[in-house]
Amino acid sequence: MAKTPLQFRHNGRDVAIFVDGGMSLLSALRDEVGDHSPKFGCGQGGCGACTVLVDGEPVVSCVTLAETIAGKSIETADGLKTGPELHPLQTAFMDNFAAQCGYCTPGMLMAAKALLEHNPDPSRVEVVEAISGNICRCTGYESIINAVLAAAARRTERRA
Amino acid sequence: MPVTVKTFTTPMEAAAALSSDRAARYIGGGTLLMRALNEGDVSIGTIVRLDDRSLAQVRASGGRITIGAGVTLSQILRDRELAFLHPAARLIGGPAVRTTGTVGGNLFAPAPYGDLSVALLALDATVSVMSGYGARDVALEEFLASRDRSPGALVLSVTCDRPSSPEAFRFRKVARIKPKGVSVLSIAASLPGVGGRVSNPRIAYGAMAPIAIRAKAAERALEGKTLDESGVAAAVAVAAEGTAPATDAIASAWYRREVVGVHLRRLLLGQAG
Predict the structure, then answer these.
(1) E strands in chain A
(2) pTM for this entry
(3) Which of A23, A140, B175, B212 has the most neighbouring CB atoms within 10 Å?
């Protein structure tokens, strides 16, 4: 079975891997690149645990054909921190108890990051819409929403 | 199970690949096809991709608008010309699904999914389909009824009415999870008015049958009526006529039949859900 070469940017680094025909972006990231931050939850695009950013836009990587992201820039939760410094979203999630089992967290973080990049000062309704594709079984969502709003507030403060 | 991925640059080549191989399936955004692959659908041997920007175009012409099959749901939401489809597109899938999910793909989404095709059905949509003989236009109703029997057909675009005003086209999706969840049912209603009375209404339902359907009994009962309590009563009384909803993880057939009239009434009266 022939393998297809695939080159793209992964969290700021150029990578080149080989994928099998029909391989999902999620499998490519986890099994070929070795980035285990996006999770497999449902395989249907319904739970959002596999959410990553492709050129700044959120996609559900379990139902994204790996080949389609050739040449594009992929961001995952693994790439949020800068060296030892956490991303403001990660700090806010910690401060607001927005993770319990942590399984939905990488997907939530990427959905939130996409929101804040497009809309630095979202309303609560906009945050809810932004994470509407991400399911959480533990927290009841309130702490996650608070965390995203807190991260947005901190960024607004720092820029002011 | 590894499959072969073939990428083409013209619809003609892609259509030829689809019709010549029983195990070939077309991929739009992938939200339907990749799910099937993930779930172990062994009937998929070849994935046909089309790299053609012309499928992502939107063209207005008079009172109708043509939307390329490759237009994504998020693209719809960014386009002011397509504002009348925003209520439907906004409630599909979540932001990530909408980044890759396409208009063409939604035509193939099985009930209880496929809410965009419900909106398009109420807007008198036609589908431009390419087969071995070239492109031809098919009424959406006919397309939906035969979509399982013509797997080799390639959807190029959808053309529908542009509503004359926001009041003239209404959409409602009923789901247990807010802000978005899988449909208990969805309703789209095109309600052109002449002298305060509805003229030539079109009402479409989602998740009330295996495919999106027109509520023809309700349409007939609404013709010439005013959109007030007494005017809509006859239509509401026959709201469930002609429907064949399924019992699934979201809701039972009984429940769907029970509430479709309630939601139709609220939609026609302009009341909150």
Answers:
(1) 4-10, 13-19, 51-54, 57-60, 73-75
(2) 0.94
(3) B212
Chain B residues whose beta carbon lies within 8 Å of the beta carbon of residue A48: 94, 96
Contacts of A58 in chain B (CB under 8 A): 95-96, 99
> What topology does CATH give the domain A4-79?
Ubiquitin-like (UB roll) (3.10.20)
Q: Which residues of chain A have pLDDT under 70?
A: 1-2, 158-160
CATH of A88-159, one of 3.40.50.300, 1.10.150.120, 3.40.50.720, 3.40.50.2000: 1.10.150.120
Q: Which of B27, B30, B97 sits opposite A133 (nearest CB)?
A: B97
Between chain A and chain B, how many beta carbons pairs sit less than 8 Å apart? Answer: 88
Q: What is the mean pLDDT of chain B?
A: 94
* ipTM attached to this prediction: 0.95
Domain positions in chain A are 4-79, 88-159
A41 close to A126: Cβ distance less than 8 angstroms: no
Question: To probe the interface with A, which of B26, B33, B38, B48 has the most A CB atoms within 10 Å?
Answer: B38
Average pLDDT value for residue range B93-102: 96
pLDDT at residue B194, rounded to an integer: 82
Q: Are the CB atoms for A89 and A145 separated by under 8 Å?
A: no
B56 touching A, CB under 8 A?
Answer: no
* Contact predicate A63/A22, CB 8 Å: no
Which H or E element spans position B34?
A: helix B33-38
